[in-house]
Amino acid sequence: xxxxxxxxxxxxxxxxxxxxxxxxxxxxxxxxxxxxxxxxxxxxxxxxxxxxxxxxxxxxxxxxxxxxxxxxxxxxxxxxxxxxxxxxxxxxxxxxxxxxxxxxxxxxxxxxxxxxxxxxxxxxxxxxxxxxxxxxxxxxxxxxxxxxxxxxxxxxxxxxxxxxxxxxxxxxxxxxxxxxxxxxxxxxxxxxxxxxxxxxxxxxxxxxxxxxxxxxxxxxxxxxxxxxxxxxxxxxxxxxxxxxxxxxxxxxxxxxxxxxxxxxxxxxxxxxxxxxxxxxxxxxxxxxxxxxxxxxxxxxxxxxxxxxxxxxxxxxxxxxxxxxxxxxxxxxxxxxxxxxxxxxxxxxxxxxxxxxxxxxxxxxxxxxxxxxxxxxxxxxxxxxxxxxxxxxx
Length: 393
What we know:
It contains 14 helices and 19 strands. By secondary structure, it is of the alpha/beta class. Helix 11 links the parallel strand 13 and strand 14 (about 325).
């Protein structure tokens, strides 16, 4: 349905003095005409993405921390979680979510393949297994007496090449009356909003309730409830339980109907997406070119994984963006893959003030705009590339 060309690994931030060649891989999106799961070609092993050099930190964003901490408080209240309960987070990263449960006195375990992030989570009281989650690891943990009242996986499902094995692990560890919380961007909103920059090799799948319900059913699980979220351009939070303990709720039926109306069972909807993506590329390139032709310096705020796809597909590099800044310390002193744009701490915006700041972490634009208000007062203009390249009011 979409060919984004040859693209480097999104989170492979290289230092300026790294002499090794930067590898690029095909980035092509397909859709299954049977279950309508959208997937990229599996061209890069998961170990390439998730390792001791993994730079993403979920706690780097203050608005995301507020999102997960508020959710943890709510779940503690609604599920009456306490010291006798066990919460297990898959893809626990730096412990932003799991640490919120641990801080409230709930026994919290995590699993993540990035040892550097797991070390940070450990400092927050999250006992973390370093490794990839799936059926084998789950059965090993169950054999050691681990059983979860609640399991969480925020923005993790897309990162899994073998979804069947992954979900088997949840079914194995969840207590009979327990609940699983999955949070992920909806492919329906990706298609509607045109956020093709969220497509990269680390994201193997682009998800919908339509595609996931048969998967859960194969493992004796049922979606009991659904919440729509504004995060990442449009997401869903599914509450999943053992089939023996619940039934499909009305909110689930409502989302299923919404996806049907949006055409998620119509391949033409997916094919049309490629045309929309190509048109957006031309608009973004024209927007940047207009600024550069006027002699304006442009800096990027944020070097998220999606920036790699956006800049590579649109052919934007150091000739277009003078530098980038990011709060995540592991990214600082490195370069955006492919574009080779230097990433500095945010202070550089004050020391080397540009004319325009293009917010590549566009899903956090409100938070970032508030932080940059003093620069705006000095005449700097803020812009976003998505859903349309435009200046913020």
